[in-house]
Amino acid sequence: MNILNLFIFIPLSMLLALFISRNIKQIRATMVTGSTLLLALSVYLTIDFIAQRNAGVSAAQLYCDSWHWYPTLNICYSIGVDGVSVAMILLSSIIVFTGTFASWRIKPQTKEFFLWYTLLTLGVYGFFISTDLFTMFMFYETALIPMYLLIGVWGSGKKEYSAMKLTLMLMGGSAFLLMGILGIYFGSGATTMNIHEIAALGNIPVNIQYIFFPLTFIGFGVLGALFPFHTWSPDGHASAPTSVSMLHAGVLMKLGGYGCFRIAMYLLPQAANDLAWLFIILTTISVVYGALSAISQTDLKYINAYSSVSHCGLVLFALLMMTRTACTGAILQMLSHGLMTALFFAIIGMIYGRTHTRDIRKMQGLMKIMPFLAVGYVIAGFANLGLPGFSGFVAEMTIFVGAFSIDDIFHRVVTIIACTSIVITAVYILRVVGKILYGVPTDSEHLKLTDATWDERFTVICLIACVAALGIAPMWMSNLIGGDVANIISNIQP
Amino acid sequence: MNYLQFLSMTPEISLLGVFVMIFLFDLVATGRYRRIFHGIVCLLLIAHTYICITSGEEQTLFGGMYYNNPMISFVKALLTFGTLLVILQAHRWLRGSYTYYKQGEFYVLMLSTLIGMYFMMSARHFLLLFIGIELASLPLACLVAFDKYRHNSAEAGIKYILSSMFSSAIMLFGISYLYGITGTLYFDDMPTILTGTPIHIFSLVMFFVGLGFKISLVPFHLWTADSYQGAPTVVTAYLSVISKGAAVFTLFVVLTKVFSNMVPQWQTLLYILTVASITIANLFAIKQHNIKRFMAFSSISQAGYIMLAVIAGNAKGMTAMVFYILVYIVANLAVFGVIESIEQQTRHGVRRETINGFYSTNPRLALLMTLALFSLAGIPPFAGFFSKFFVFMSAFDAGFWVLVFIALINTVISLYYYLLIVKAMFITPNEHPVQKIKCDLYTRLSLVICFAGIVLLGICSIVYINIDKLAF
């Protein structure tokens, strides 16, 4: 059996097991077993993939499999991975694993929470392993809808409003996307929905590409927090419960970037080249505007959400540069942002669980009260502002080097503008660190608070280890994705 | 004339048999035998559905007036299956004090409308078509007014019958024009003469009104909300899926058989009506607080989506349409089954506020309702996603890009109002939620079937593939 099918099969069995489980112990056991299995499986997949690549297997996709699902409509369940998807699967597994521990004490309706959580996981894995337009789209939507209930029921603050806004905006995006997918399929005149076969045909007329590229790009871009369509993100992230924020910012937003790269740019190369300038401008605005907005926020989660807008904007920005270095940087940035933002949201959730406020004006001197969480926060912050030794530095360095190396005035100017976000990031991170962690605790209630429990420590340590590992030894990862990025790029470039 | 011809109409004869048996049982059965009445009706219908599916050979009778083939038989079986689900859900309501003694009438009226729909779909002659439509409409008016002691129900019945008669009259006017133009009422002889001159278009539009009323497309939808709200819930369910399904299929047949030389004309007509139906119904649905009214507008917009398959007008479109009807039947009946259960519990009409906090007391019903609403909104991995996708595909393939785009934007609006219901059940707190509901066996059975349909129909492609083989 193809190993990739297990990524569908395990979440499905988890769903079933959760459905029949009766008490909290069984639920936790199911979640831990399932997410550990998934993590182990992704690690195995990564190692095996690298081994195969080193052995000289140069096919674009490995572990391919295809099964006719709706034969008369040319819809297949086809799966396969390349370096980029392997990296994304690894990222998802890490976040899902740590997210399980971060929601260890979620209440009420623990069972339902994990049911929706697992359904979301299923969608994410399915999206990353599919190579068929239809199945990809199906899993994409499967991953979106559980967010409504996850935020609406277990969230905080103005959760109903945020949940509705997030769901409707993302579904609006997927309406655009469906239009784009139909356009690609019928425009290419292909007898298959397999993206690699459509790309190999490469015969979508240019005027059709001009119509459907913006639709597809915006469709995925909504999830990737592209500038005018990012407004769901701050509200959504601020209202979501901890593990959902982690999964959403850490993995789900990556679906957007991945889709833009894999479908919009890969399948509609001509339009991607001609219209890139428009989207480069929008993403530059995302990058700078997100960072500037973060400065003026007072809610910890809002700060981090706007920071996500800025960093995810950088992903799309780099992808649109369409050079090998920049795109490798984009994928690294996805990984790096996924991990560190998950770390951030995890710690914020833990702090909020104790202080019951996220307002930075009401907290002070937390370093003395909860040193473990505070140190974790500082590390996450350093990773976020791109300190060498952490993943953020590697990714941003690669992106800006790749982007600046394009020899024309437009690209250089936008790169310089986007670079300013590094400085702005330092401002809002250090401001928060100074404000809430240092100084003397003012609120006497806060003095009674305790530091992290074992499950929280475990989550934080796992994520810090990953962030540091990616920062200290980035080459194996960039080798893993570099070759396949070059493959895709060669199809996009004229 | 060879009278044995009548025996060849297997689905109709078999349904007539069921009809007569129920009639006789109602006449002779007394006392404790009446308690098993419901069960017997269900068993008879199951047997009949089986006969329908197996009686699939192609045949033309009465000089071309009547036509049956495997696809039509399949749709007949499909509608019977839907009727069976509705009757299963009706059990508790039928045992109520007002309805108990006229249980037999309910079955007989419902089955006679079903025969009417059979004739509608098999008709290849406008006379038979008209008789079928009338047979499917008049008993329905009685059904809508079945709770005659309830003011609402009687009012709904009157509204239904008046608008039904009115639209029939206009349709008859259209048919008389068609007869005047072509000199025949047989479908087969018409296409060569109908070429799209203004008078032909005029008769097309007039004819369209009758079916537009039954499908409740937008300019002909004004009866829908009131009738749906007033009618007993099971009858509303029947109106919204079975009656609509039959009319859509008939429309498809007439448009492709009779007006096959006027394709651009009826496509334009459908284009406008589809956009109007989907958009207007969606905007109205947002405002509704009574769930049955809400479902009325939801069903109008769903009808608009089915029109996307009709507008393609080819075999792919037919498959997409029949599949859509099938999925729509299970999803919509799941919603109505839950509404019926709540109504039987609370003895009041169900409003959106009624079901606040429904999940805390009735997790299973709430979950089923959520899945059904997701299916109606077209969320994967539930069946509705697949049926919507196929409908979009067939319309896109036929070149209606902008129409598909408008419909897609509308799915977002529809998701909004479906989510309002989900929000009421899961999120909005309520101090006095609906008590725990204990469903009877029949209702439970129908809900389980609906649940299985919602979850499996899309993932198991076998159903779609088999429908595709039948399409003509």
Structure write-up:
The complex is a heterodimer of chains A (494) and B (472). Chain A contains 20 helices and two strands. Chain A has helices at residues 6-20, 24-54, 83-102, 110-129, 133-144, 146-154, 159-188, 195-201, 206-223, 232-239, 242-267, 269-295, 300-321, 324-355, 366-369, 371-384, 391-404, 409-437, 454-472, 475-492; strands at 62-70, 75-81. Chain A has a two-stranded antiparallel ribbon. In chain A, helix 14 packs antiparallel against helix 19 (454-472). The model of chain A has no long low-confidence stretch (mean pLDDT 87). Chain B is mainly α. Chain B has a domain at 262-472. Chain B has a two-stranded antiparallel ribbon. The longest helix of chain B is centred in the middle third of the chain and has 32 residues, at 151-182. In chain B, 56% of the residues are buried. Classes of the chains: A mainly alpha (494), B mainly alpha (472). The interface between A and B is medium-sized, with 29 and 31 residues.
Structure in a nutshell:
The complex is a heterodimer of chains A (494) and B (472). With 494 residues, chain A is mostly helical. Chain A contains 20 helices and two strands.
